[in-house]
Design a protein that fits this description.
319 residues; Heat Shock Protein 90; 2 domains; five-stranded mixed sheet; two-stranded antiparallel ribbon
Length: 319
């Protein structure tokens, strides 16, 4: 009977112990067989449930992708008509004003703003569905993350100033190796993190995009002096459509997709994203990317546990 129990322990639930007598050994063999049958039934049920869940997930992803794709065409048409209307009003606002009733500028601006928001939402849904289904490809090449970060900060600094006089800066460690990444996807990742930080950093706050090297990884981090996040929310922060403060996110225009896209893009590039945050002090999102000179590096990115503090006006991670 020993060989039967070893086979069952190894995962072969088809084996049965011979029941040759009605003594204690025979009863034990019968119990072992009964246990194997129950385990086999439970495993079959689990496999069936898993297959059903995976099928439901695929159907959901396909549905979201299809809806996003179908919404793109009417949005493009709406955007074109709004642009045409905007240009027409600009032309007819002079001496030769049109007799047609003019659309108030505030109304036109609101329509354009909401159309842009809806377009971004649809694009994010479509991108996320493709990433989750494995149909989104990334082209990994050696990337100078430091130069990319510097260019991105120059591009997004006016946004931070406009939203709340927030100071956006970049810090780069010397002698960094190139990272193995998709430059366009990495730029989108960091832009999403910066926009997220801007939304949750009060007026006069600080956001720092830093690039360093840690345990063989190139690490791009976005740290802010914002409101911070409670620890209970951190495990779910990268889930699709998850929002810590639903009412505030809606007012700020967040749909709960940006961080999910960050996670999926980072995974596709062979990296990992880690978040640390303390309520009332700020947050830090770190993107770990493999170096182009050591593609076989198996060092796992460090886990949680670092604080974001402010030292002389600059947020910096401390143990």
């Amino acid at each position: 009977m020993a060989w039967v129990t070893r086979a069952i322990a190894a995962g072969d639930l088809s084996q049965r112990a011979p029941v040759d007598s009605r003594n204690e050994i025979g009863v034990l063999a019968s119990d072992v067989n009964s246990m194997a049958e129950h385990l086999g039934t439970a495993m079959d049920d689990l496999r069936a449930a898993r297959a059903e869940a995976e099928g439901a997930l695929r159907r959901r992803q396909e549905l979201v992708a299809n809806i996003s794709h179908e919404l793109r065409t009417p949005l493009a048409v709406l955007r074109a008509h709004l642009d045409t209307l905007d240009m027409r009003q600009a032309v007819t606002s002079g001496a030769h004003a049109s007799r047609e009733p003019a659309l108030p500028p505030a109304t036109l601006a609101a329509l354009q703003h909401e159309t842009d928001r809806l377009t971004t939402l649809v694009d994010d849904l479509f991108t996320l569905s493709r990433a989750e289904s494995g149909s989104l490809r990334v082209e990994r090449h050696p990337v100078d993350v430091a130069a990319l970060a510097d260019d991105l900060v120059k591009l997004m600094r006016p946004l931070a100033l406009q939203e709340g006089h927030i100071r956006l800066s970049v810090e780069v460690a010397p002698g960094l190796p190139l990272a193995l990444a998709d430059a366009d996807r990495l730029r989108q990742i960091l832009a999403n993190l910066i926009r997220n930080a801007v939304r949750h950093t009060p007026e006069g706050g600080i956001i720092v995009l830093s690039v360093t090297r840690e345990d063989g990884w190139v690490v791009a981090a976005v740290a802010d002096t914002g409101e911070g996040i409670e620890a209970e929310h951190l495990p779910f922060l990268f889930d699709r459509l998850y929002r810590v403060d639903v009412a505030r996110s809606r007012r700020a225009g967040g749909a709960g997709l940006g961080l999910a896209i960050v996670r999926e893009f980072t995974k596709l590039m062979g990296g990992r994203v880690v978040v640390e945050s303390i309520k009332g002090e700020g947050s830090c999102f770190r993107i770990f990317l493999p170096t182009s000179t050591d593609q076989e590096d198996d060092n796992p990115p460090p886990g949680q546990g670092r604080r974001i503090t402010v030292d002389r006006g600059t947020p910096s991670p401390t143990p």
